[in-house]
Task: inverse folding
């Protein structure tokens, strides 16, 4: 069982990177030009991850993919998840999609404990509440269906007439700006076009959450920009919550909240500056790159720990696991 509170803390789960238990200095949170979330009590969280742990066992080897991950996402947010290869991004996304069960911890969607649901409830959740877009467009589309038929496919089990189904599928293709390819088969479309159809497919059953794992991983930068803009547009227009795992920093720069996972835990979050957000629609990719977009925060977990990056430790000359922690002028100073 994963330790639920500080007193039960077991060293097995403590990250190898230097972690110092520090208390939040108020100044850290006083950046007023940053778009802050609503105060705790007013938050409308669509997703809450509470101490998620995932251990994969293969033969004799155990891999700790998630190490007590805590995360809250508000309804209507557009969030990017970044992190090194193997840090646990896909594991987290698959868990949110109900495809992967945690070894310990809980995951609440709309206040419901996802993995306390019956198997039938979980199947219904996967079919109705979440939409997936994968990196490889071949994973998203049926090759022998046209774009339109692909978008209609998830609607076959709904009580809809053929005409209604067609109208809805066509409406989605229009919204994504790919309706001119309605009668094309996947093999006749470019990677970017296929990904756009895949977004329409994922939206067909009106999911509450859209999950995308490296959706721009296999397309060029121009197409990637176009796909990014589609995610922003559908987030704004239909208010759907979107979580995108990406290696693509140009995508990460365009979303209001960027969550960094390292070693199976959230380590830092970047929140978009309000000034930057206001300018976003009128700027080119080049001019965007020149402006600092986000304010970066370290995450203080429930057990009051923060992760400190190896770079920061190196810069501070900290090379052992013992550090001094002192409070000076209302600030916490960690030193050798
Ligand atoms: N089915 C599995 N069986 C065993 N180990 C797994 C399995 N899936 C993932 N892992 C391991 O769990 C860890 C996290 O994997 P995950 O796929 O979540 O990483 P990721 O952040 O998505 O990486 P990438 O950026 O390369 O896609 C890795 O060490 C990986 O090898
Ligand atoms: Mg992955």
Result:
């Amino acid at each position: 069982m994963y330790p639920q509170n500080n007193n039960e803390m077991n060293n097995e789960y403590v990250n190898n990177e230097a972690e110092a238990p520090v208390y939040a200095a108020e100044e850290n949170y006083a950046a007023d030009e940053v778009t802050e979330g609503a105060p705790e009590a007013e938050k409308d969280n669509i997703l809450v991850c509470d101490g998620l742990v995932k251990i994969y066992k293969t033969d004799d080897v155990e891999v700790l993919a998630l190490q007590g991950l805590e995360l809250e996402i508000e309804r209507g947010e557009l969030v990017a998840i970044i992190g090194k290869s193997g840090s646990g991004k896909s594991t987290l996304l698959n868990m949110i999609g109900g495809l992967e069960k945690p070894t310990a911890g809980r995951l609440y969607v709309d206040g419901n404990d996802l993995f306390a649901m019956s198997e039938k409830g979980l199947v219904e959740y996967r079919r109705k509440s979440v939409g997936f877009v994968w990196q490889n467009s071949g994973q998203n589309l049926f090759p022998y269906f046209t774009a339109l038929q692909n978008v209609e496919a998830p609607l076959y089990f709904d009580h809809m007439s053929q005409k209604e189904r067609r109208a809805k599928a066509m409406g989605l293709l229009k919204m994504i700006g790919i309706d001119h390819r309605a009668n094309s088969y996947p093999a006749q479309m470019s990677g970017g076009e296929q990904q756009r159809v895949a977004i329409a497919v994922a939206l067909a059953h009106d999911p509450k959450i859209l999950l995308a794992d490296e959706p721009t991983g296999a397309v060029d930068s121009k197409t990637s920009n176009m796909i990014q803009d589609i995610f922003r547009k559908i987030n704004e227009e239909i208010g759907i919550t979107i979580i995108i795992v990406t290696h693509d920093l140009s995508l990460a720069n365009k979303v209001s909240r960027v969550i960094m996972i390292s070693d199976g835990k959230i380590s830092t979050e970047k929140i978009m500056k309000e000034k930057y957000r206001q300018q976003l629609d009128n700027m080119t990719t080049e001019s965007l790159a020149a402006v600092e977009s986000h304010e970066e925060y370290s995450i203080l977990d429930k057990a009051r720990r923060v992760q400190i990056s190896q770079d920061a430790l190196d810069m501070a000359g900290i090379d052992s696991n013992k550090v001094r922690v002192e409070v000076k002028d209302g600030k916490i100073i960690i030193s050798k």
Notes: The first strand starts at residue 19 and ends at 21. The pocket of magnesium ion (ligand 2) is lined by residues 89-90 (CB under 6 Å). Residues 1-39 have pLDDT under 50 and may be disordered. The CA atoms of residues 210 and 242 lie 5 Å apart.
